[in-house]
Design a protein that fits this description.
The complex is a heterodimer of chains A (258) and B (551). Chain A is an alpha/beta fold and 258 residues long. Chain A contains 9 helices and 10 strands. Chain A has a domain of 170 residues: 3-Layer(aba) Sandwich (Rossmann fold), CATH 3.40.50. Chain A has a 6-stranded mixed β-sheet, with helices on both faces. In chain A, helix 3 packs parallel to helix 5. By secondary structure, chain B is mainly alpha-helical. About 1% of the residues of chain B have low confidence. Chain B has 3 domains: 31 residues; 228 residues, no CATH class; 238 residues, no CATH class. The longest helix of chain B is centred in the last third of the chain and has 34 residues. Chain B starts with a helix and ends in a 9-residue tail after the last helix. Chain B has 22 helices and no strands. The chains are: A alpha/beta (258), B mainly alpha (551). The interface between A and B is large, with 36 and 36 residues.
């Protein structure tokens, strides 16, 4: 796969709006993600996080706006855009009759990864799936299925990884492995967008935050900047305080982008 | 050329089906049930093929009408309008069904939609199933049609092309229709399609019923009618191919026309698909949720029902029976309300019919009520079958197993037996007037349904079965379904015989009043039901909660 030019955004979202019948799920969202960034996507239930990630993954088309992945519009040049991304859904549905290894084999074929076996082996080892290598998907626990989906996301070395609630079902060790792997991928230049309600994890992991509420951007920037903006009189507000204050003020005048 | 990823997926899924089959052969019981499933399928296929090859025909086993009018029937002019009618009905059915015409499974949405694969390739992948289904159906029909068709191979190809094109056309039109939104265009096009189909069917009906009434005359009129033949013209190549005789050269011109239609329709489908993708994703997700409920045996349970809209008053506790019974009845009323209303309407209509005919139709009414009770007990799952995923929860209740079994079974019997009992009550009331007999008749049916529900629960707890929707590559599940069907039949027959014996003897031998004989039958039924419910409680206690039922 072609290398991504440094300092060129991996993902550019501009004027993204998504309407379901009469419900506005996401409204006029603009942001960019640089290579190596780990963007924490925060928002209460129904804020539009999954819609945003599904739109960026090319699963649902935008009502309006542009979603560029590696400079390619996900609507007009879907194959080029999707070749550069990986998507881990919030509740990954695996193919029941396929084994863990066969999932990796299938994803490698889908993304044209020629010599995938050593990498697949390493991923199984890393996510403690080696013993489940030949286990069929329907015999796996929720956490195991999540690990398979994450391993599949890494196999083709994408430029952008979209993770929707990736920690669900993972045990503490699995969460630690995932955090380490995300940091390593970011160090290699891969951008990662992680949606999660686990604020402590976002605080530890992410280099920047995007907080959305009612489908609109409330804040985009670094966690430190968020603390100073939403911290009011507190000297060291937690991300939880920031989250509640930010989502309690959807039309926040603090939004630095406005 | 299909994308290598999709080819890999098809290959791995087929491999998975074979593996699942081999996995199912790990236990002797599974092997025996697989052999039963395989045996019954083989028997059916062998008889079909043997029939097609004329092995089983001695002196012609076909209906005389078919033999006599074989030449007149086996003409494209007669078949093409029929093919058109079937295709139009297929389109209407696809339009009206709540499921997406080209539904994707959630795993396909999760993995193929974000993948770098052109969408038309994903659609082709999904159509793979339609192709397989078309091959199987065409094969079976071609075998069955050998008496009127000329060449089984050509008939198979004609049917295959027709089936594929009819399916593709139905899916394309339904997709296009879903993309129209909810405005005038959507309803206008539906009215136009229904109107067109009805007009064409009515025109054929008038052509067939007017004029001479001989079979030859009717067939000649259909063949000569310009409107019937003109509308069916696009389907003529399929009809010609289906009835083609030995010359294989016929496969070239007509076969090519049919074959060319398949990719044309597939391209049209891909074009239309892009505009309705959002609806497809949403409908596919709903479809999957329905399938998941089917898998859990909750056939008639909606996703949420209309919670809160219907509440029953609190029942007395009765060692836990009251709350458990109330929960199931309320769930049933909320989630199968439409079905139960249909049953109740049928009961009222049956009563009105009995009144109108002065009780002459009581025999038929009684049979209808019994059949409804049997099907209700069989299919309505508001008992242990609906609680498949909640067994752990039920076990944790501070309630005796036998009380739990009574509550579960009685709730389903109320829902399944209530409307047929009402039907029976109204019918007998019309005939006998206000007397104890209608009440006894209704109670008899209710206790009969209680027995059946107890048997169904016992069978379910002893042999937790795979649903029909999880049988791919799972011959032992299929064999188990056949075996259970047989066991059920034997159980029901024995039950009916044993419980109606005392009442029957009282009525026929000792000539006691119907009321007394009926009461004896009710008591016999209740006694049998109590026995089965005790067995159900025992089966519930030994039920292995940790088992992977859908594995």
């Amino acid at each position: 796969m072609e290398a991504h030019a440094p300092n060129t955004p991996v993902a550019q979202v501009s004027g993204f709006r998504k309407v379901y019948n009469t419900t506005v799920a996401v409204d006029n969202l603009d942001f960019t993600v640089e290579p190596g960034a780990i963007l924490g996507l925060l928002g209460p239930n129904g804020a539009g996080k999954t819609t945003l990630l599904r739109g960026m993954a090319g699963i649902i088309p935008p009502t309006r706006g542009w979603l560029l992945i590696g400079g390619h519009d996900v609507v007009r040049e879907p194959v080029e855009a999707k070749q550069r991304l990986a998507y881990v859904p919030d509740d990954p549905h695996l193919f029941d009759a396929l084994t863990v290894w066969e999932h990796l084999e299938f994803i490698a074929a889908l993304y044209g990864v020629a010599d995938y076996e050593p990498k697949a082996d390493a991923l199984l080892e890393r996510f403690e799936l080696t013993r489940q290598r030949n286990t069929m998907a329907h015999e796996l626990s929720r956490g195991m299925r999540q690990k398979v989906a994450i391993a599949c996301a890494y196999i083709h070395a994408p430029q952008l990884i979209l993770m929707d609630e990736p920690m669900t079902g993972l045990d503490p060790r699995g969460i630690r492995t995932l955090k380490e792997s995300i940091t390593e991928e970011a160090a290699k230049g891969t951008a990662v967008i992680v949606s999660s309600h686990l604020l402590a994890l976002i605080q530890d992991l992410c280099t920047s935050l995007l907080i959305i509420h009612h489908g609109r951007k409330v804040y985009m920037g670094s966690a430190t900047q968020a603390r100073s903006l939403f911290g009011e009189r507190e000297t060291d507000p937690s991300l939880e305080d920031v989250f509640f204050r930010a989502t309690g003020q959807a039309d926040s005048p603090f939004n630095p982008s406005t | 050329m299909l994308h290598p990823g999709i080819v890999t997926l098809i290959r791995l899924r087929m491999k998975g089906v074979v593996r699942q089959f081999l996995h199912s052969l790990r236990r002797p019981r599974h092997i025996a049930l697989s052999l039963l499933g395989l045996g019954l399928i083989s028997l059916y296929l062998v008889s079909l093929v043997a029939s097609a090859m004329g092995i089983l025909e001695e002196g012609g086993s076909h209906a005389p009408f078919m033999v006599e009018y074989r030449d007149a029937l086996a003409t494209p002019a007669i078949l093409a309008p029929l093919l058109l009618i079937f295709a139009l009905l297929g389109v209407l059915l696809t339009l009206l069904l709540p499921t997406a015409p080209l539904a994707f499974q959630p795993n396909e949405i999760d993995w193929l939609f974000p993948a770098p694969v052109p969408r038309w390739q994903v659609i082709l992948y999904r159509l793979w199933g339609v192709l397989l289904q078309s091959v199987v159906i065409s094969f079976l029909i071609a075998m069955g049609m050998h008496a009127v068709s000329g060449n089984v191979v050509l008939t198979f190809h004609g049917l295959l092309f027709y089936w594929l094109c009819a399916n593709l056309a139905a899916i394309t039109i339904a997709q296009w229709h879903r993309g129209l939104g909810n405005g005038v265009r959507k309803w206008g096009s539906l009215v136009a399609l229904v109107g067109g189909t009805a007009s064409y069917a009515a025109h054929i009906g008038f052509a067939v019923t007017g004029g001479p009434t001989t079979a030859e005359g009717v067939l000649e009129r259909v063949a000569a009618d310009p409107i019937i033949q003109g509308a069916a013209l696009p389907l003529r190549p399929f009809a010609i191919l289906i009835f083609a005789q030995a010359p294989w050269s016929i496969l070239a011109p007509h076969g090519l026309v049919c074959l060319a239609l398949v990719p044309t329709l597939a391209v049209a489908l891909c074009r239309v698909h892009e505009k309705s993708i959002e609806r497809i994703v949403a409908e596919s997700e709903r479809h999957y949720q329905r399938l998941e409920r089917f898998r859990r045996g909750q056939l008639f349970q909606g996703p949420s029902g209309s919670a809160g809209s219907l509440r029953l008053p609190r029942f007395p506790h009765w060692s836990g029976f009251g709350p458990l019974y109330r929960r199931q009845v309320m769930a049933g009323l909320r989630q199968s309300r439409k079905l139960l209303l249909v049953f109740l309407a049928l009961a009222l209509a049956g009563g009105a019919g009995a009144l109108f005919t002065g009780g002459r139709g009581m025999g038929a009414l009684g049979v209808l009520a019994i059949v409804a009770a049997v099907y209700g007990a069989w299919f309505l799952p508001f008992d242990f079958r609906a609680d498949r995923s909640r067994m752990e929860w039920l076990r944790a209740f501070p309630v005796k197993a036998v009380t739990l079994a009574w509550a579960q079974t009685a709730a389903n019997a109320t829902l399944a037996g209530g409307p047929p009992a009402a039907l029976m009550f109204v019918g007998v009331l019309v005939v006998d007037g206000l007397s104890p007999t209608p009440f006894v008749a209704a109670f008899l049916l209710l206790s009969f349904t209680l027995c059946l529900s107890a048997v169904e629960n016992l069978l379910f707890l002893l042999f937790p079965q795979h649903s029909m929707f999880n049988m791919r590559g799972n011959l032992h599940a299929m064999g188990q379904a056949y075996a259970l069907f047989f066991i059920r039949f034997v159980f029901y027959s024995a039950l009916l015989f044993a419980t109606s014996l005392p009442g029957g003897l009282a009525l026929l031998v000792f000539e006691w009043p119907v009321f007394i004989s009926g009461l004896m039958a009710v008591f016999s039924m209740l006694l049998a039901a109590s026995g089965f419910i005790c067995l159900t409680a025992w089966a519930f206690e030994r039920y292995d909660i940790s088992r992977e039922i859908d594995a």
